[in-house]
Write a structure and sequence with these properties.
6 helices, 136 residues
């Protein structure tokens, strides 16, 4: 029962995704065809919000609810990130869905997206199986 706040936040986030048309296959296709700014505006807003949030967390030494310090480890660049990003983007363009909105799409009645969800789970499983042999 103590985790109900996460369920409520997830449902609220799903509603925001639906209302912002971020889960729309047509909006995603417009983005990849470079015919609309809508998705770039949404993604850009998320990036700017994230940058500001991290700066505020660092400046005011904000801690987690349990009192632990928040620390973002520096990321090391690797060519595997480019390869993974290309595979991710290709899947996103083909299916019209990225992992975030999958549940909102299914909840909105686009049940065919369940195939994309199962494929994402299978891809995660394969990555876990092969991760020790991949370039990191």
């Amino acid at each position: 029962m103590k985790n109900i706040k996460f369920l409520v936040a997830g449902v609220f986030f799903g509603i925001v995704l639906v209302k912002a048309q971020v889960i729309s296959w047509f909006r995603i296709q417009e983005m990849f065809q470079l015919t609309s700014f809508h998705m770039y505006g949404v993604i850009g807003t998320a990036v700017v919000t994230g940058i500001i949030s991290i700066q505020l967390i660092n400046k005011f030494k904000i801690k987690t609810f349990s009192g632990d310090p928040i620390f973002v480890e520096p990321k090391k660049f690797d060519k595997g990130q480019i390869i993974g990003g290309l595979i991710f983007g290709l899947g996103w363009a083909i299916t019209g869905a990225c992992p975030g909105p999958l549940f909102a799409q299914i909840g909105s009645g686009f049940t065919v997206v369940a195939i994309t969800l199962l494929s994402a789970i299978a891809g995660t499983w394969v990555y876990g199986l092969l991760s020790s042999r991949l370039p990191h």
